Amino acid sequence: MLNKFLKVTIPTIIMVNIAIAQDISSSAVPTKHNKTLTIGDIAQIQAGLGSIMIEFAHRFHIIYYAAKASNWNLAKYELHELIEAQEVAETTRPKYKRQLRSFENDYLSQLNNTIKEKNWDNFKLQYSKTTIACNNCHRSNGHPYIKYILPKKAPKYFNMK
Ligand code: HEC
Asked: Whose C-alpha lies nearest to ligand 1, atom 11?
């Protein structure tokens, strides 16, 4: 009896949920430039992994030179922002969520500890381990040609001191 009830009820709930989701997704939110813009269109254009990775490389580069100049607050800030960017990718590209979480737990947290300790030697070591992990993730996802290397110079538009 209960079984029959569940067999009928659960699919009905799922179908209703899908119908509601489709309805929300096709709701129009017209703007000055696009009268037919929908919530679905907006959801679709959220930053994917490629855009987030450009931000990753940028911030990861700054982190190194900030730590080198003992501007530990800047290093800490950039790492915090990098992790926030990662959280966006976990939501927009959930298939990478598990790998991104382990990357954060196994590498970024350790890097954060060396920043908190203001320990340049430990930082450098952890930075190279993290770089290897970045590139391992590229390889394991079919992008062996994407290899991050640390740029030779600090970013131009920051006073690192
Ligand atoms: C979870 C796995 C993963 C980790 C960890 C990771 N990446 Fe990536 N990265 C990717 C994937 C996948 C792509 C290809 C993006 C796509 O498919 O849209 C990529 C692309 C890139 C790109 C190319 C972006 C472009 O479009 O020009 C850069 C640069 C990059 N990653 C840097 C880094 C750096 C630096 C780190 C470490 C701090 C890192 N990545 C960590 C998976 C990862």
From this structure: 138
The pTM of the full predicted model, rounded to 2 decimals, is 0.88
pLDDT tens, residue by residue, 23-53: 889 999 999 999 999 999 999 999 999 999 9
How many domains does the chain contain in total?
A: 2
Q: Ligand 1: distance of its center to the CA of 98 in Å?
A: 15
Q: Which two tokens stand for residue 30?
A: 């017209």
Q: Which of 106, 105, 52 is nearest to 82 (CA)?
A: 52
Which of these, 69, 140, 67, lies nearest to 102 by C-alpha position?
A: 140
Instruction: Please state the φ and ψ torsions of residue 119, each to the nearest 5 degrees.
Output: -110, 100
Q: Are residues 38 and 69 in the same domain?
A: no
DSSP 13-60: HHHHHHHHHHHHHT-B---SS-TT-BHHHHHHTS--HHHHHHHHHHHH
Task: Give backbone dihedrals phi and psi of 28, rounded to 5 degrees, phi first.
Answer: -80, 140
Could you tell me which residues are beta bridge partners of residue 38? 28
Whether 100 lines ligand 1, by a CB cut-off of 6 Å, is yes
**Structural domain span for residue 27:** 2-44
Asked, for residue 153, whether it belongs to a domain, the answer is no
